[in-house]
Amino acid sequence: MLSFIRSWLPGLPSFQWSILSTNPIDSVLQGLTGACGISVLCNLMRVYLFIKCLSDPERLSAQRDRLRSPRFFTEILHLCVLSSILSVVGARVGALVVLEFSLRAVSTMLSTRKGSQNSQLFLLCQYSLGCALTSSLSFLQEGAPHRTLSLLLGAGLAGLLTWHTQALVRHVGTMYELHSKQRYCGVCITLLTCWHDIPALLTTALKITFAVAGMAAVYLINKDFLSTSEAMRFWTPLTICYTLLVIYMQEEQQQNPSEQMALQTVFVRMGGLLILMLTVGKWLDVLHILVSLLGEVWCLLRARAMLEVCRSQDCSDSEGVYRRGAERWSPNTGSPRGHSPPSPSIEASR
């Protein structure tokens, strides 16, 4: 049936489809699945941030209205743009984006202080998550006898999850404040008791996703090399490039990044990959990196309101952690309050 559908597609020259890493239908289905994954991540983060604003109305009431559910047409446009971008980007460049973010995420988690939060990382990984899903699907479905049918089922499941999370965002934005007080809505009662577990759930899901995508990325990059020396000529400058990028990110993490700084970081990362591909890659990879730059900027601009809320909340949470730590220790003796050191007379009597 699918071959019959393909036979009715217009007979375009082969070079027009050459920007797609696989056949057009499979590439579109992979891109749609990746875009739906990004939408699910953003919807759950919107729910979490909205409920967190309601839990502290004195400080965060002004930010609550910015987290309302966007218009339906805007969501559809966002999904279509992301699907198109992820469909065009090849598996090789998608794998490079996945490896770069994986190293950056590990570096961020190792450098984050215990007790502090970095909820911005969930929103900064949007495009990388889309590339991780497309790379994983390309790796897992390679050589499958019913590849297109499997991708169609996966895209349908991803679309169903997206629809449900969008409905959850609309419900929370309009009815959560009332239902949480009246306690007669099962969804709102569940969120009332479990909303603070959303970051842990997303963290676990992202760890699994990027673990699978990391293995897929290494395979997708290495399969194009005919010899070990050719692979070394590619991996050596890539390792140097990623090391410099991680060092640059470590310096940027010392301060709370603004929107301009986040965009500047995207241009630095994609610029480094662009120079690398101009040196050891192909011209098609250069084109895919430019498209990836467009995808990164689109995701950041789309989540601009949530990023600003995350910055203010992360600052507030960090101040609370430092304040609690200061209250636990006496300023003069350095010992915890409630446990004063023994007096000299008691020590002398001993």
How would you describe the overall organization of this protein?
78% of the residues lie in helices and 0% in strands. The protein has 350 residues and is mostly helical. Helix 2 runs antiparallel to helix 3 (57-64) and helix 2 crosses helix 4. The chain is globular and about 65 Å long. The model is unreliable at 4-19, 320-326 and 329-350 (pLDDT under 50).
Main attributes of the structure:
350 residues, mainly alpha
Would you spell out the secondary-structure blueprint of this structure?
Blueprint: H1 2-7, H2 24-55, H3 57-64, H4 72-88, H5 91-111, H6 120-124, H7 126-140, H8 147-182, H9 186-194, H10 198-222, H11 228-252, H12 259-280, H13 283-302, H14 304-328, H15 344-349
The secondary-structure class comes to mainly alpha
CA(first)-CA(last) distance? 92 Å
SSE string, helices as H and strands as E: HHHHHHHHHHHHHHH
Query: Got a strand count?
Result: 0
Radius of gyration: 24 Å
Helix fraction bin: over 70%
Shape: globular
Total helical segments: 15
Average residue-wise pLDDT: 77
Relative strand content: under 5%
Catalogue the unreliable spans: 4-19, 320-326, 329-350
For the largest beta-sheet, the strand count, sense and barrel status come to: none
